[in-house]
Amino acid sequence: MISIGKFSRTCQVSVKTLRLYDRLGLLKPAYIDETTSYRYYETDQLDTMIVIQRYKRFGFSLDEIKTMLDDLPADNTQKLILKLADLLRQKQELENTISDLQILIGHTERNSNMDKTVFENYTIDVIEHEPMPIYGLRREMGVGDYGIAFSELFEQLGEKGVQNIQLTGARYFDPDFDANASDIQIFAQVGKADANDTIEGGCVVHTVHKGAYSGLNEAYAAVVKWMETHDYEQTGAPYELYTKCGINQYPIRQWETDIYFPAKKK
Question: Which is nearest to 184 in space by CA: 196, 168, 171?
Answer without folding.
Answer: 171
